[in-house]
Specification:
Oligomer: single chain
Strand content: 15-25%
CATH architecture of the largest domain: 3-Layer(aba) Sandwich
Shape: globular
CATH superfamily of the largest domain: TPP-binding domain
Helix content: 25-40%
Number of domains: 2
CATH topology of the largest domain: Rossmann fold
Number of strands: 17
Structural class: alpha/beta
CATH class of the largest domain: Alpha Beta
Strand order of the largest sheet: 2-1-17-16-15-3-6-12-7
Largest sheet: 9 strands, mixed
Length: 445
């Protein structure tokens, strides 16, 4: 295992060795691994104590493959496999041919082959261009009978519904009586991630969690742990988007006789900067922001909705300028521009130019630090970050062995949470409490 911890171009783990007297019969490689892992955990202890700390979770965080089941995917595939699967669908065969012949859009091109979001963005731009001439199709028609404008709209809905189905992951999330859901290991990883982050000093500002993921794994995990979070929506039965809520905090009154308040410990800010499967465009009484959050979304319900906020869609305005995306990116930029801010990226490939621009702008602040959990190569963006040789850029991970396609490197979300992120909580106590509560439920039946 070739583990690295780059600060600039300097791999601080290069000369780390385990002590022979700590081996206890273990191999030298094993003791070296423990020593290096300990070094990483010590570094992250200091990171968690930083005043302004943010995490950016990419699509890799919601992918989870079961090792003892031939690496079966029980979570949500990352963008490259998603794109490959969609482009190979039988029902996409005719639209695929039409796109290449009539619009010169080849989904096999590098711009689209590994990123379904880029493909959708291109189609949305075409849709916006044709929005004044496109006619509403009231009845279902075969693809060949549609006008060119409506063919673009047809493909957008086709890709959107495919993404919806994948991000809801309903089959794997389904829990039958007496059995646990197939995606339970992924849920447990998210729970462990948020549980460990709760160990942060409560006197420090609350953590910011940014994510490009459309799925609901962060919300599900925090709900199961009883963690409060602000995600930009306010209201009771009907929750509508209002970015002003990001300026609020959940606090408890410390002194009944005086106005003394303290922000509660189990509290996070969650920013879904690319949207979510449970956000829809809807009108509400006296609501300036017409984005509504729905609870327990199903594929059947969402298919009927005209606008699902799973991707910036230029329907009435340019998506990059319209709400809620503009508000979320403004919050992202505002957090990055704070002094002594650290941004930790996990499962993020740096393939989103609009996000990268904001991150790179933050380097104009001398105290900004970027920690990338991933592997730098000659071809990827992380490798280019390494070439900058800036000590404010930390890159932590492991070289993926060329002869092991089914290997799970250290920079995978599960391994990061279990092996790198330090645990200062009484996790055993948490599990015991959870077991006791479940047992009490059984007694009350």
């Amino acid at each position: 295992m070739e583990i690295f911890f780059y600060k600039g171009n300097d791999n601080t783990l290069a000369n780390i060795k385990g002590r022979p007297d700590d081996a206890g019969g273990e191999s030298e490689e094993s003791t070296d691994l423990k020593a290096k892992t300990k070094k990483l955990q010590e570094a992250f202890l200091k990171v968690l104590d930083n005043k302004n700390l943010s995490f950016l979770l990419g699509s890799g965080c919601s992918s989870y493959k079961i090792e003892n089941e031939d690496f079966k995917e029980v979570g949500i595939p990352v963008m490259a496999p998603l794109a490959k699967e969609f482009y190979s669908l039988t029902e996409f065969k005719e639209p695929k041919k039409w796109l290449k012949t009539e619009l010169s859009i080849d989904v096999e091109h590098d711009n689209f082959s590994n990123n379904l979001e880029t493909f959708l963005s291109t189609l949305h731009s075409l849709s916006f261009y044709h929005s004044k001439t496109r006619e509403d199709v009231k009845e279902e028609k075969p693809f060949a009978e549609l006008s060119n404008e409506n063919k673009v709209e047809f493909i957008i809905k086709q890709a959107r519904n495919f993404l919806l189905e994948k991000c809801l992951n309903a089959e794997n999330a389904k829990s039958e009586e007496g059995k646990v859901s197939i995606d339970k290991p992924l849920i447990e990883t998210y729970k462990q991630f948020y549980r460990k982050l709760l160990s942060r000093n409560p006197t420090l500002p609350r953590l910011n969690i940014f994510t490009t993921n459309y799925d609901l794994y962060s919300e599900r995990a925090m709900d199961l742990l009883g963690i409060h979070y602000v995600n930009g929506f306010t209201g009771g039965i009907s929750k509508f988007f209002n970015p002003a809520i990001f300026n609020y905090a959940l606090a408890e009154k410390m002194d009944l006789s005086q106005s003394k308040w303290s922000v509660i410990d189990n509290f996070f800010y969650l920013y879904k900067i690319h949207g979510s499967v449970n956000w829809i465009e809807a009108d509400g009484e006296n609501k300036l922001f017409k984005v509504k959050e729905i609870q327990e979304p199903t594929l059947e319900e969402l298919r009927e909705k005209e606008t699902i906020m799973i991707h910036p869609t230029p329907l009435k305005y340019n998506a990059s300028l319209g709400s809620p995306y503009s508000d979320l990116f403004r919050e992202f930029q505002k957090r990055l521009m704070q002094n002594n801010n650290i941004l930790v990226t996990i499962g993020y490939s740096f393939s989103d130019e609009h996000i990268n621009n904001l991150i790179f702008q933050a380097f104009t602040i001398p105290s900004f630090r970027l920690i990338v959990i991933g592997e730098p190569t000659e071809k990827n963006a992380i490798g280019k970050l390494l070439e900058l040789n800036d000590t404010r850029i930390w890159i932590i991970g492991e070289k993926w062995p060329a002869d092991k396609s089914d290997y799970t490197p250290l920079y995978f979300f599960k391994n990061f949470v279990e092996q790198i992120l330090p645990d200062l909580t009484a996790e055993d106590l948490d599990h015991k409490m959870e077991a006791t509560i479940n047992n009490l439920k059984n007694l009350l039946k």
